[in-house]
Amino acid sequence: MERTKILVTGGAGYIGSHATVELYNAGFLPVIVDNFSNSQESVLGGIEKILGVKVPFHNIDCNDEEALRAVFAEEGNLRGVIHFAAFKAVGESMVKPLEYYRNNVGSLLTLVSVMREFGVEALVFSSSCTVYGTPDQLPVTEQTPTKKANSPYGATKQMCEDILQDIAAVPGQTSRTILLRYFNPVGAHASAEIGELPLGVPQNLVPYVTQTAAGIREQLTINGDTYDTPDGTNIRDYVHVVDLAKAHVVAVQRLLDKKGETIETFNVGTGHGNSVLEVVQAFERATGVKLNYKIGPPRPGDVPAIYADVTKATAELGFKTSATLEEALASSWKWQQHLSQR
Prior knowledge:
The chain is an alpha/beta fold. The protein has eleven helices and 13 strands.
């Protein structure tokens, strides 16, 4: 039986590569678009090793409308899109706001225009819990008011959501969209063939943890210990990247089945939070490796604590995470060791 084609923008990235694997395992044919601005070509080899096949790939920038249009024309019969292609580092966005607005908002506008031209209706948009800003109450539900973003990165996600909501509000629209607001992806594929692959100094906690454990970094700096949390460090909802990838598969199928509303929003997380210190301790338990760390100043743009209420995703998508924090961190360590052996 012919596989249903799904375009995966940013498919060589961290979450995109895992979503590509899970899409293929679920019977779809993922088609990757990526320009390696925040990924490496070796990821395609990792995907091929896992699946035993090469998935279609196009090296283009999603802001390039002509190039994107050519992909849609060449592939033909694309049934849906998962849009991951965006810059994603909170700290970096504070010093490169223009680049973030141009890339993140611009690529969505280009993509939606080309989708409309080719009659592709289904879109899963990679959003973020950053749209909630600093929430007044925890956990956050999909009805929690969005507040002024703490960073340009968060602002771009809010803008993109607003654009998609405005499009969906036009009578007679045939487009169908699911906004997945996810929390903090961690971990790697069980094969250790793909995982989080930061270019340069890691912007996220777990790669810094694993690189410190491997001796690549001398010391882990924890950004602040005076937040209004039980141990003073930031609290986040850490979700295994494979669980997160599976949520995208469920979302795509829901769109193709034309279930639900024209546009829907779902939180994707575990439903509970862990502090940075708890992550450090969980990593040490999972791996037996002691970490050298110190406390540093807070990082601009960071909210003290945020974690998800996942009731809606469980009830309407039938989706729940399954991996524990220790399992996720153990897979991250296995991936780091694999990288060190290259």
